[in-house]
Amino acid sequence: MSVRRRHLWTNKILGLSKKASHPKDIRADFDAFQGFILGIDPSLRSSGFAVIEIGDHQKINLHTSSTLKLSPRLDFVVCLGELFKATQYLLQSYPVCAVSMEQTIYVQNSKVAQILGSCRGACLAAVALSNVETKEYTPRRIKKSITGMGQATKEQVAKMVCQLLQLPRILPPDESDATATALCHFFSLKSLLPS
Question: Where are the domains of the chain?
Answer without folding.
Answer: 1-32, 33-190
